[in-house]
Amino acid sequence: MSLSPASGIGRFYKKSAKIIRFVRLGCTNRPFYHIVVMERRKNQHQPVIEQVGSYDPMPNENNERLVALNTERIRFWLGKGAHMSEPAAEVLGISGLLPVHPRTYMTAWRNRKTAAEAEASQNVAETA
Predict the structure, then answer these.
(1) Domain coordinates of the chain in residue numbers?
(2) Closest CA to 73 of 3, 4, 7, 6
(3) DSSP one-letter string for 34-97
(4) Chunked mean pLDDT (size 10), the chain, 128 residues
(5) What is the pLDDT of residue 101?
(6) Using alpha carbons only, how large is the chain's radius of gyration in Å?
(7) According to the model, what pLDDT value does residue 1 have?
(8) Listed GO cellular component terms (predicted)?
(9) What is the distance, to the nearest Å, from the Cα of residue 119 to the centroid of all Cα atoms in its chain?
(10) Contact 101, 88 (CB under 8 A)
């Protein structure tokens, strides 16, 4: 049995539910994700219909997380009725393709709160 190509096999059942989700690749402690369209009931290691992007969650030397999206194909699949997983919806919201996901706002709020607390504790330590 040969492996399916990374960009997908392109075969699917016409009436089955589709979903846009992440497929985890990479090594231990070094994840890398392909953003793919696949049938909803299949597990992430099954052959995918199409790869529509990639996401590298590890920050590079400029503290950036890299995302590559094929927006034309994502819009095509959303128009065909494909569902979205929550992590994929978050990334597409940050990229501007979809409305920003509410979890993104909550994460930003928590990050600002912890940064403010750290700054306040540092100011108290400096004055003491």
Answers:
(1) 5-98
(2) 7
(3) EEEEEETTS-TTSPPSEEEEEEE-S--TTS--EEEE-HHHHHHHHHTT-EE-HHHHHHHHHHTS
(4) 58 78 92 92 84 93 92 93 93 90 90 94 84
(5) 87
(6) 19
(7) 43
(8) mitochondrial inner membrane; mitochondrial small ribosomal subunit
(9) 31
(10) no
Separation CA 46–CA 81 (nearest Å): 21
Asked: is 5-98 a CATH 3.30.1330.40 domain? The reply is no
Cβ 89 vs Cβ 101: under 8 Å: yes
**Is 55:67 a contact under the CB 8 Å cutoff?**
yes
Write down the pLDDT at residue 10. Answer: 65
Report the candidate in 33, 37, 6 with the shortest Cα–Cα distance to residue 19: 37
Please state, in angstroms and rounded to a whole number, the distance separating the CA atoms of residues 101 and 49. Answer: 25
The predicted structure's pLDDT at residue 12: 64
